[in-house]
Design a protein that fits this description.
- The complex is a heterodimer of chains A (286) and B (533).
- Chain A is mostly helical.
- Chain A has eleven helices and no strands.
- Chain A has helices at 2-14, 17-34, 36-39, 70-106, 108-123, 126-141, 145-171, 175-182, 187-223, 235-242, 251-285.
- The longest helix of chain A is centred in the N-terminal third of the chain and has 37 residues, at 70-106.
- Chain A is globular, with a radius of gyration of 22 Å.
- Chain B has 533 residues and is α+β, with helices and mostly antiparallel strands.
- Helix content of chain B is 33%, strand content 23%.
- Chain B contains 18 helices and 21 strands.
- In chain B, the strands form five sheets. In chain B, strands 1, 10, 11, 12, 13, 14, 15, 16, 17, 18 and 19 form an eleven-stranded mixed β-sheet that branches. A four-stranded antiparallel β-sheet of chain B has the order 4-5-7-6.
- In chain B, helix 9 runs antiparallel to helix 12 (356-364) and helix 16 (454-465) packs antiparallel against helix 17 (469-485).
- The chains are: A mainly alpha (286), B alpha+beta (533).
- Chain A binds chain B through residues 44-46, 48, 51, 65-66, 135, 138-139, 142-143, 225, 229-231, 241, 243-245, 247-248, and chain B through 242, 245, 268, 270-271, 274, 277-278, 319, 322-323, 378, 381, 384-385, 388-389, 391-392, 395, 403-407, 409-410.
């Protein structure tokens, strides 16, 4: 039965155009990242004789101020960006889901405390908060990629917690939960075994949609010089380094910008598609 | 409970306050000059706007006012001519050295006036020296005291002997100010209030970290028989280097210029070529300031001269300057060729070369797999580019460099704690700082040192102590040779001083880098610039 449901769900996904396009884009970009050592050159290799060359056959995306191949840096940048974004999303989702589930399930003072913390975090503009946090972490622990990851996780878990809380609030009144309670199952058991698995679908949709935001945040911090530091290739930082050449060497900013836009588009389309499929499922169920 | 009418009034009042708060702040009203009116010819705009990276500290600070007002508002007893390696007259027309430099007696030029109309007399020099001796770090370590022999003759007493005392008198910090600059007036321990000097500008308004406003000093223009091309010179402090360039491009300022201290807050050299191609006028002057690789030579692995040599030979300086569209020159000697002793040292083979094969061999014979840390200050985009190139050049010979681009504060902490192996640094400065920075970078026991060994330290002492030009040159040549032999530092490129102006700015190279009487200045001067109306 479960197998049949899975097959139906998969076929619905495959029939959803948004899902397919989003998945196609992301698969292509991810594949580029995975195959970076094969399809791209050394992103650190400088060649001053070839500096600021426009796109040509040898350098399809042109070269930068140090004569490095922009194509190679963009392709290697896929790895940096996706790995960091994925780490942030997984960490945020874990923290957010855990706190949201506790707040929703137990209610009372636990819900009040977590709810107010969520409100406080939501009241602060995310990017401004991120900038401040990265600055503080840099001063306290020195420059590290973990500064960016931690700063974004701290601001990003909130959306997961808020949604999770709402879902758990409705799930805990459902018959299967009440039935388990009547059978004497413990709260933690019910929460982990019955409530969270039923809430994970919307969380995955949220995570997919949120990946776009995370990529944007990483790029923004990189652009402001607060994110991943040179010479590591990262799209936002590449745009920052190329911004002064926007009139004379626009390829320095265009290609990293294009990859940021396309990867965000990919995650958004996939997320929208997943949401559409799940919404239809829910309508059918009711 | 509020009535509807009261509520509407309250909302209106609140909105009005908000709107007022948002209105752009108007420039402060500038007082009319009290002395002779200096009228800018009508073909020029009344106001000249300059974008600058550092606050001018017109109300004073630990090191006094900023360097820009020190050369525009104040003047010094002497100036330094790098080409001739000579101190030349400025406020003082001549001087006499006694007791091997422990006493120097200066005779002042007559008829020079401060911007408040009072005449420059020996008492003002005596006051400045005494005030510096009481309040300024450099004054405290330099001066013993001063005596006004007559109205125009002053003797200055120094703590140590040596030529360095005279050379220091051309330094920014030794600029002469009116006794009215402090409160109570003429008190050597008085609190600094406002700079009053004999220079081309008169400071009229200032807001910390925001702006400084100057007016032409009519007495200075009269002295040099010139007419200013503006009524008001406004300097906006724009800390971020890219923002300064953008301010110029967007027309918010008429010009941007380097922090004359050198080494920071300058127009990125990698932007000069682009700005020039866009039609902006780039005024640049070679100065004896050289960017170097500084080693943490007191600890492993760079306590080994061989590894330092390998780094030196692995650096392709011609490639480095290409990052800057060749706007700067590769440093194949420690300083630019006009600096004293450089030509002679070059003739003796003191030339830094690019020999990657030799470097590779040294690394393979004892340092294979060595990994070193290089720290870079994030606020300087030029240095981030140079560091990345150096990282690759060293990788090419087998030395792995971990690059750490740090916030300025974190960079300073790491530097001061000695937690690095390599870093980018600079030696020398604008012309007037040639000997001063030699002291700070190479004299034993200095905080901002670049490299000191027994041999180089001794030679540095000899250079700074020697009054005889020829002997001093000889010591300098030996000093350059010692630094070269010990690979104490690795020169990368010779820096410049720049001013970049908009297309409608009237300016010329001569006036930008010379006083009207022909005295060369390493720093850009703005007394003869204007914006076409």
């Amino acid at each position: 039965m479960e197998f049949a449901q899975g097959t139906i769900f998969r076929s619905k996904l495959l029939n959803n155009n948004l899902c397919l396009i989003g998945f196609g884009i992301l698969a292509f970009i991810t594949l580029m990242g995975v195959l970076a050592p094969v399809i791209a050159k050394n992103p650190y290799k400088t060649n001053i004789a070839e500096r600021l060359e426009p796109p040509n056959l040898k350098h399809p995306f042109g070269t930068d101020q140090l004569g490095r191949d922009v194509y190679s840096r963009v392709v290697w940048g896929v790895r940096t960006t996706l790995l960091v974004a994925l780490t942030i999303s997984l960490m945020s989702m874990s923290i957010g889901c855990f706190l949201g589930a506790i707040a929703g399930y137990f209610g009372g003072i636990v819900d009040d405390i977590i709810g107010r913390v969520i409100d406080v975090f939501l009241a602060i503009p995310e990017l401004v908060f991120n900038i401040a946090l990265v600055g503080v972490f840099c001063l306290a622990y020195g420059e590290s990629i973990w500064n960016v990851i931690l700063a974004v996780v701290i601001t990003n878990w909130v959306s997961y917690a808020r949604i999770m809380r709402g879902i758990v609030l409705s799930l805990k009144e459902r018959e299967f939960v009440l039935c388990e309670k009547a059978l004497g199952a413990g709260d933690l058991y019910i929460l982990i075994r019955h409530v969270m698995p039923n809430a994970i679908g919307p969380m995955i949709v949220l995570a997919t949609l949120n990946m776009g935001n995370v990529i944007m945040t990483i790029a923004s911090l990189g652009f402001l010089g607060l994110g991943i530091q040179p010479p590591t290739p990262e799209w936002g930082q590449m745009i920052n380094a190329g911004k002064n050449y926007i009139t004379t060497a626009p390829w320095l900013t265009f290609f990293p910008g294009l990859f940021i836009a396309v990867s965000i588009l990919g995650f958004n389309l996939l997320g929208e598609g997943l949401q559409e499929v799940m919404d239809r499922e829910r309508i059918v169920e009711t | 409970m509020l009535t509807r009418r009261e509520f509407v009034k309250l909302v209106a009042l609140g909105s009005a306050s908000l709107l007022l708060g948002c209105v752009k702040r108007q420039s402060p009203v500038i007082p009319t000059p009290t002395a002779k009116e200096t009228v800018a010819p009508s073909e020029y705009k009344a106001e000249f706007l300059l974008g600058y990276g550092k606050d001018h500290k017109l109300k004073g600070g630990k090191w006094g006012i900023g360097f820009f007002p020190k050369i525009h508002v104040l003047e010094r007893l002497v100036e330094y001519d790098l080409k001739e390696d000579k101190l030349i007259p400025s406020l003082a027309k001549k001087w006499e050295v006694e007791k091997n430099g422990k006493t120097i007696t200066f005779e002042l030029n007559r008829g020079i006036k401060f911007s408040d109309g009072s005449e420059l007399k020996a008492s003002a020099v005596k006051f400045t020296v005494e005030w510096l001796a009481n309040n300024h770090p450099l004054g405290q370590e330099t001066f013993e005291g001063a005596d006004a022999i007559d109205d125009y003759t002053v003797s200055i007493y120094y703590k140590e002997e040596g030529f360095f005392n005279l050379a220091k008198m051309a330094e920014f910090h030794m600029s002469i100010m009116s006794p009215k600059s402090v409160k109570p007036e003429n008190s050597p321990k008085g609190e600094f209030v406002w700079p009053i000097g004999t220079g081309c500008f008169k400071a009229v308004d200032y807001k910390e970290e925001q702006y400084a406003i100057y007016e032409p000093n009519p007495y200075w223009y009269e002295r040099f028989e010139l007419k200013p091309k503006f009524k008001k010179f406004v300097v906006k402090f724009i800390k971020d280097e890219d923002t300064r360039v953008m301010a110029l491009k967007s027309g918010q300022v008429d010009a941007i210029s380097d922090f004359v201290h050198g080494g920071s807050a300058y127009t990125p050299r990698n932007q000069l070529g682009i700005l020039s191609s866009m039609g902006y006028k780039v005024f640049k002057r070679n100065i004896p300031l050289t960017w170097i690789i500084a080693f943490n030579y007191k600890k492993e692995p760079f306590n080994d001269v061989n590894l330092r040599k390998a780094v030196d030979l692995a650096i392709n300086r011609d490639d480095i300057v290409k990052i800057f569209d060749n706007q700067v020159l590769p440093a194949k000697t420690l300083f630019i060729e006009v600096a004293p002793g450089i030509k002679e040292a070059k003739a003796q083979g003191v030339v830094y070369e690019f020999k990657p094969d030799v470097a590779k061999q040294i690394i393979e014979n004892g340092y294979k797999g060595t990994r070193v840390d290089m720290i870079v200050d994030k606020s300087q985009s030029d240095q981030i580019l140079v560091a990345q190139l150096i990282q690759q050049q060293l990788k090419n010979v087998g030395l792995n460099v971990k690059l750490e681009v740090l916030e300025s504060g974190a960079y300073r902490e790491r530097r001061d704690a000695g937690e690095y192996d390599l870093r980018l640094y600079y030696v020398g400065g604008t012309d007037r700082r040639f000997y001063m920075r030699m002291f700070w970078r190479f004299y034993p026991g200095q905080k901002w040192s670049a490299y000191v060994s027994e041999r180089t330290g001794e030679l540095c002492k000899k250079v700074l102590g020697e009054f005889d030009e020829n002997k001093r040159k000889q010591y300098l040549v030996e000093f350059y040779k010692a630094i070269y032999d010990e690979h104490g530092v690795v020169p990368l490129y010779f820096d410049i001083m720049t001013a970049v102006t908009a297309k409608d700015v009237v300016a010329d190279y001569y006036h930008m880098f010379h006083y009207p009487n022909g005295t060369p200045f390493g720093e850009p001067l703005f007394y003869y610039v204007g914006v076409k109306a």
